Amino acid sequence: MDEAAESLFPVEPAARARLRAPAALARAQQPAPAAPGAELWAGLHLPGITHERQLTQLAQQAQRFTPRVSLEPPDGLLLEVRGSLHLFAGVAGLTTALTQLCGQLQRPVRLAFAPTPLAALVAARAGRALQVLEPAQLVGQLAPIPLTALRWPPQLLQRLKRIGVRSIGAALRLPRAGFARRFGATELAQLDRLTGRTRELRTLFRPRERFRRRRELACELESHPRLLGELTRLLEEFEDFLRVRELGVMALECRLLHRHGEATACRLSLAAPGADARHLGALLAEQLGRLRLPQPVRALELRAGTLLPLTPKAHALWQPGEQGGDAGGSEAHLLIERLRARLGHGAIHGLSLLDDHRPESTWTVSPPPAPAGRAAAQPGIPAVSARRPLWLLAVPQPLAVRAGLPQRRGALQLVSEPERIETGWWDGRDIARDYYTALDTHGVRLWVFRERAAPHGWFLHGIFG
Fold first, then answer.
1. Positions of E strands within 286-329
2. pLDDT confidence of 317, banded at 50, 70, 90?
C-alpha cells in the first residue's frame, strides 16, 4: 500500500505488516476448502456479441454441456460444469468443446474456470485463461487482474487509481470498513462474491418453449392429399420436439403460403394436451378437406401455441368392452376435437353452473371441459336440488287458470310444498315466485310457479325426466 492509501486508511504497524505479506493475505481471504460437490464455473467472454438474441442463441446451444447456464449481458455467459467434467474428459476436453461450439457460431471467445461465477467471468474478460479448480487457489490467481475487468464506474476506478489501487489484489488489501465507507458497500459485496466469501445465487437461463417450422415445397401444390403428406413430416418433427420435453399442445396453426396474397390458415384447438402426430394429422385433414385454396401452395409453416406438461395416463387392466373395462374420459376429448375440426370451433360447447338462485340464470354456455374434470364439481357452486328438472324451458310458458289452479291439458295436481325464490334486485331482473311440482292428467311431472305479484299468473318452467 502506498503513502496515499495509508493516509486514507490508517492502520496499526502490526496490521500493516500483515497487509503487506502475500501469504498472510491469501490465508485471510481464502474460503474454507472445497467440499465434495463444490461448484466450478466456466466463464465465457464474447467480445463479438452485439445483440442479446445472439447471447440467448449461444446459451441454448450451451445447455448440451450443463443445465445450469446463466446469462451475463451484454457479452458474458456462465456455465456451472462441476458435474459435467467426467463427461467431457475434464477441463481440457470441456474447453475444446466450448471453443468449437463458439467457432461453429462464428463467435470469438475467451474462457476461464473458477469456483465462483464472478471470478470466472472477470478472468475471461481480462483474457486470463484461468483453470482454478479449488477455492484455496482463487485469491492468489485473481490478485494481478486489473480492476477494469470488474466494470466498476469509471469515476470509482479513477479514485482508486489515484491511491495506487489498480488490481484486484490491491483492492482486497484495503481495510473492509474503510473501503465500504469511501467507495461503497455494493463494490465490497462484489469483492466478497468474487472471492467466495459470500455465495452468489445466479438466475438460470430457461429457453422459451415454442415450435415454429417452415417447409419449402419442391413445386407448387394444389392437391390436398399431397399437401397432407408434406405436412406429416412437419408433424413428426413436432411430435419428437414434444416427446423429448414431455409437453403437449393445446392450439396449433398450419399456414399454407402462396406466391401472391395472404397465407391460408388452418387452426386447431384441442380439448386436452396432445402430442400424437397421427391424431394431429387426422384433425388437420378434416380442415384441409373443407378448404378452398385461392392459389397453389409453395410452402408450409407449422406454429404451436401454448405448450403444457404432458402427463401419460395409465391404462386399465380391462380393456373397454371387457368385464370391468371402461373407456372413461380418454375418448371424450378425441370426439370433441374431431367434431371441432369437422363442424368448426363454434359448434361444440359445454355447460357451466353459475352461483345464482334464479333457475334461468344458474347455467351458461362455456368451452367443453377437460376430460379429467368432467365429473368434478365446480368449487363454490352448491349442489342442485333434487327437485330441479333437467329440462328447463328457455322462456316460462303461461298456463291457463281455473278456480285459482293451473291448467295444462286439464287440471294440474300440485304434489309438493311451495319453494319461494325471491332474488335478483341488484341487476334489475328480480323475481318473486312460488315453485311447485305438479302432475298433469297423463302423469307427467312438471315444474310450475305462481308469481307473487299481481296478477299472480301461473307458468310452466320445466319438465322432469
1. 297-304, 307-309
2. low
Highest mean pLDDT among 174-188, 206-220, 275-289, 365-379: 174-188
- 9 and 152 share a domain? yes
Match 475487468 to its residue by C-alpha cell.
Answer: 149
Query: Cell 459435467, residue?
Result: 84
229: nearest Cα among 296, 311, 284, 183: 284
Same domain flag for 20 and 163: yes
The single-letter code of the amino acid at 52 is E
The DSSP secondary structure of 255-309, one letter per residue, reads EEEESSSPPEEEEEEEEEEE--HHHHHHHHHHHHHH---SS-EEEEEEEE--EEE
Number of domains in the chain: 3
pLDDT classification of 370: cutoffs 50, 70, 90 = low
142 and 168 Cβ atoms separated by less than 8 Å: yes
CA 355 to chain centre: 32
Nine-digit cell string for 225? 392429399
Tell me the C-alpha distance between 108 and 407, whole Å: 92
Buried b (16+ CB within 10 A) or exposed e, 260-275: eeeebebebbbbbbbb
**Block residue for cell numbers 338462485:** 357
Residue 38 in any domain: the answer is: yes
In a shared domain, residues 298 and 364: no
Identify the sign of the CA torsion 80, 85, 88, 94: positive
CATH code of the domain covering residue 250 = 3.30.1490.100
| Helical H segments across 21-51, by residue range | 22-29
Same domain, 107 and 174: yes
Query: Is the per-residue pLDDT at 433 higher than 50?
Result: yes
Q: What's the rounded Cα separation, in Å, for the pair 164 and 51? A: 36
- Residue 8, pLDDT score: 47
Domain presence at residue 203: no
Which residues constitute the domain of residue 139? 3-195
End residue of a domain, out of 167, 195, 223: 195
pTM assigned to the model: 0.49
65 and 179 share one domain: yes
The 3-state DSSP class for residue 250 equals: strand
CATH number at 20 reads 3.30.70.270
Q: Any alpha helices (H) in 276-431, and if so which ranges? A: 277-290, 332-343
